[in-house]
Amino acid sequence: MTTPISLEAMAASVPDGALIALPPDNSLPSVALAKALVRRGARGLRLLGVPVAGFAADMLIGAGCVAEIETSAVSLGEAGFAPRFSAAVRAGTLVVRDCTCPAVHTMLQAAEKGVPFMPLRGLIGSDILAHRPDWTVIANPYADQGEDPIVLLPAISPDVAIFHAAMADADGNVWLGRRRECATIAHASKRALVTVERVVEGNFLEDERLAAGTINATYVTEIAIAERGAHPVALLDEYGTDAAYVADYARMAKTEAGFAAWLEREVLGPRAAAAE
Amino acid sequence: MSEIRPEERLAAALARLILAPDAPPARHIAVGAASPLPAAACWLVKKQGHPVRLSLLHKRSGNPFTEGTRELFDLTGQGRIDLFFLGGGQIDGQANLNLVGTGAWPGKDVRFPGSFGSAFMYMMSHRTILFREEHSPRVLVERVDNISANGVNEPGVFRRGHAQALVTGKCVFAFHPARARFSLLSLHPGETVESIRAATGFGFDAPDQVPQTPDPTPAELELLRGPVCDEMLETYPEFCARVFDRKIAA
Known about the structure:
The complex is a heterodimer of chains A (276) and B (250).
Chain A: H1 7-12, E1 19-22, H2 31-39, E2 45-49, H3 55-62, E3 66-71, H4 83-91, E4 95-98, H5 101-113, E5 117-120, H6 127-130, E6 136-139, E7 149-154, E8 160-168, E9 174-175, H7 181-188, E10 191-199, H8 208-211, E11 214-215, E12 222-225, H9 243-252, H10 256-268, H11 270-275
Parallel strand pairs in A: 1-2, 1-8, 2-3, 3-4, 8-10, 10-12
Antiparallel strand pairs in A: 5-7, 6-7, 8-9, 9-11
Helix pairs in contact in A: 2-3, 3-4, 5-7
Chain B: H1 6-18, E1 28-31, H2 36-47, E2 53-56, H3 70-78, E3 83-86, E4 90-92, E5 97-98, H4 118-124, E6 127-132, E7 140-141, E8 162-168, E9 171-176, E10 181-187, H5 193-199, H6 218-232, H7 237-244
Parallel strand pairs in B: 1-2, 3-6, 4-7, 6-8
Antiparallel strand pairs in B: 4-5, 8-9, 9-10
């Protein structure tokens, strides 16, 4: 039996400097927990976008919570470039380790399997590889002929996986349907903190139709209830993207002062806190 | 039938490249978020009755992947994605793509969102159609500042495919991997070889006679404005409203 903890207690359990894996805006980020991390004044976080980062990452960067980000992109989708990320790159206040999507997945899959590295095709000739001293090119030991150079990527095991799911059951399993990158990051990470819309009776693993979209409680460290916890991002077929909210953010976050006003209104101020 | 919109011409031009008889068959096409036009072109091909499987990464309902987004890359790694689309903040004459940013790494002058899957997809798909509506010396440069995904490789590096073509708001280029160079394939209305040279930062080849990019046929327009738009409304509402004057019923 799993007892949900509060969102603020969940945020408090994430230490400064932690390596945090986040899903992108089309795959259930916990924006609610990201806002709670801003409120707790987290510092020095290292983010891993799986495989890209979006709204939550841009907000955390703007709020000064982030020292480093490893990702294949940071974007607000239809609302355009991520303004606080772009500003931090320009100012040189953020360490950026550029990646490419399948490399993020591969490094996490190596961690899932408990092996130190995995190979990946592609990449040879890209400046991404040239800027990754931690990535190695070897000759394929199984090549039929020639050297067949191939890239090796180290396993990456984030300290914390953070995402939002539709629901948890009485045994602490969480259900999020087909967005299985969240399962990958839960499997690969040392801890998984999952916010959910609701907790329901029963056990998803006993239901053949729900089991395939479930993440086993083995991988879930804590659960917190956060209604509309993905907002302004969509949650499966439960609610859509709040495009106007993201567009308003994109507009205000163009400047430091505009971002500060947005943060006060939506995250830090008394009205924002009461809404959580 | 009302006037042809530039977007409709581009969608039809992209669809013709998808079906090009001299290119490997397009049985399974994947489309990312980059632009709605490649998605429109793919739907046009499908609605014309060609048996093609479309995997649209950003489709919210009915998303094709049940193992997360890694499934796209696993499929591509196996050689099961025949065609992919890429763009770039900068594209150069050797078909190198820069999605990272201008200036020193990682984009100290203007930072773009990032490379996404390009460094893998460009090499592992059987072919890639490059698409960038803005055709200017700022975008089409002699040499990209940073290479997200390279147009060609040294011999001996495993690579399944290359750019087939580059479609812009002014013309269509074909890419020739053996000599790492573009050639002019067709000109959109109002353009000349000279106007293209003036707007392009890289050198390219041009035959003596360059044909005009054909108008979409009435049948293509009918499909684009009807069934293609129907398929795109959920994922690309702004595009459908702007180009086809169509909105999702409230």
